[in-house]
Amino acid sequence: MKTELTVNGVSRDLDLDPRVTLLDALRHHLHMTGTKKGCDHGQCGACTVLVNGRRINSCLTLAVMHEGDQVETVESLGSPEAPNPLQEAFISCDGFQCGYCTPGQLMSATAMLEEAKEGWPSHVSESLSNPGTLSDAEIAERMSGNLCRCSAYPGIRQAIARTQGDAGGKS
Amino acid sequence: MRSFDYRRADSLAAAREGLGEAAQIIAGGTNLLDLMKLQVMTPKQLLDINRVPGLREITETENGLKIGALVSNSDLAADPRIRSDYPVLARAILAGASGQIRNKATTGGNFLQRTRCPYFYDTSMACNKRQPGSSCTAIGGISRMTAILGVSEHCIAAHPSDMAVAMRALDARLDVADATGDVRQVGMDELYCLPGERPDIETTLAPDDIITAVHLPQKQSGAVHVYRKVRDRASYAFALVSVAAIVTRREQRIATAALAFGGIGSRPWRNSEVDEMLAGEVPGEPLFAAAADRLLAEARTEEGNAFKTRLTRRTMISVLREATGLEPASVGTDRVEESAA
């Protein structure tokens, strides 16, 4: 099935079996292997990408459903030479060990910080109308869809908290 | 995944035409695609309704609020009107799944998600819901996540939704379009079937029905809303027990109570006798205990889920204490204020 995907601002023409997930289209058809396959069932978050600015599990959606959508992957954030502030913070806070979950953590955190800026509450927010700043508990709750088998969670939360200030998130 | 034909509907009329016996609607797909990967569900055709216009709005109506079927769980929980006027719904949604899943999952799809009973997911195990007549492995098996109310000797699967539990307490009503395009309203008390002898039949909807919207009644100023979820880990886990409560007071007495339960029922559970027992009474421990007794009178437990009767009782009483002001409100307990205007 002919499908046009826009990935990191570049339009790509693909001919896909409808069964191909967005994750497999990125990795196997576009050879963009930054996005990782962990559980392939939406439980681990390693495959997190942004679609039209929102974070989703790319393993739980079909590529053919995303014609015309704006897909952003970890390749859009920064480069080894010029990491973006969130990537820099992950490095300086030891926000990983093996690094396999990191692309998903980065994409999830990128969108999560935007959600917080828009004032979205979470399960642990005391007030639904005014969730306030991102405490450690808020970051943990909002990032619960991203697992880290090395359990680098303290570093991950610290890196996100640091970036929140830098990026002008709610203070 | 088994192969299937994929088609996209660009209008409700096109969706209706495309829906035959073999077609399955896909919206968020967060549960459906998982089940298709495991070959628990093997539709021959997928009909994508994500581009159908007019189903992503939340609008105010004469009688309350109308939520389009394709409104994402995230957008619904973040909507300022839901947060202030229907906090039990925002809390229930935020207690479920993960940020990524809530962005994709839709309001209509959430109602129709399938049980997370492990035997339903394992195609090498007998399951009457997956394969009618094959028997139920959960009975006598690992039953921690199964139901204790509304179960039958053929199925003890629990309904997994948090959102639908809040919708049940709120007396939400669904707009359902049938094959001819006629729209009828289906109440939360009419949507789900008990498993009985046919646990594979989960709702009263026909295969070619489409949920197009959900209606919430007018806000109730002064009501206290509570959503409390008890689970094995603090986040991103299904409920062992959850309680949605909406309580209004008149002087020292409970005026009205609406309680709904998740994790313990074959469907989002509500027992009107429990609500009626509480209405008009002075809140207190003996009343709450009697209401819990009433709720759990028909409980049917397995070795692996027998703990749920005590857990439900304690959770329900704790929720009622907060809802009636006997205990200070904790996170998850919110009051609906008068409109600022």
UniProtKB/TrEMBL annotation, chain A:
- Pfam families for the chain: Fer2, Fer2_2
The 2Fe-2S ferredoxin-type domain covers which part of the protein?
A: 1-77
Per its UniProt record, what InterPro entries does this chain match?
A: 2Fe-2S-bd, 2Fe-2S_ferredoxin-type, 2Fe2S_fd_BS, Aldehyde_Oxdr_Iron-Sulfur
Q: Which domain of life is it from?
A: Bacteria
Keywords (alphabetical) are: Oxidoreductase
Q: Does the keyword Phosphoprotein apply?
A: no
Name this polypeptide is given: 2Fe-2S iron-sulfur cluster binding domain-containing protein
Traced from the root, the source organism's taxonomic lineage reads: Bacteria, Pseudomonadati, Pseudomonadota, Alphaproteobacteria, Hyphomicrobiales
From TrEMBL, chain B:
Q: Which SMART domains match?
A: CO_deh_flav_C (SM01092)
PROSITE patterns for this protein: FAD_PCMH
**Origin, by domain of life?**
Bacteria
- InterPro entries recorded: CO_DH_flav_C, Diverse_Substr_Oxidored, FAD-bd_PCMH, Mopterin_DH_FAD-bd
Pfam families reported in the protein's UniProt record: CO_deh_flav_C (PF03450), FAD_binding_5 (PF00941)
Report domain FAD-binding PCMH-type positions.
1-221
**Protein name from the UniProt record:** Xanthine dehydrogenase family protein subunit M
Protein species of origin: Pseudohoeflea coraliihabitans
